[in-house]
Amino acid sequence: MHEPTEKQIEKLDSTSEMNLRYSLFETKVTLDPEGFEAEFFQVPLVDFMYCLVLSACAVREGDSGRISFTESDVLINIVPDGPELKILRSWAPAPGRCGKGEFLAAVSRFVTDGLEFLAVKYPAFRNNPTFQKLTDMNAERA
How many domains are there within the chain? Predict the structure, then answer.
């Protein structure tokens, strides 16, 4: 993970949601559904967690979810297909597949673990309203 500066760490309890989503905590994540090879992405972690939670909310309601990447124009669409989900990437024609329950559980676990990791490593982050907002969003859809 790309580490924030000392000055950024000092202000984690009050920095804006926008800064947390787009300027801090860049990390690598892996996308590995059935049907295509694992792919790795460099993403702002807090923004990626927001996108995952919002996608999971849409999927739970029976709608399609979408993950967009701030730093590029690529998209991942998560489309309900019976008890499964099709994972469609804007840059590749082959779809992936994932069980709906598996996706929802993985999102909840990823967001919970991501928030806990950041809060342990940067305790002031726990006092930022964005931490509580994302925690509540994740709990509401669990």
Answer: 1
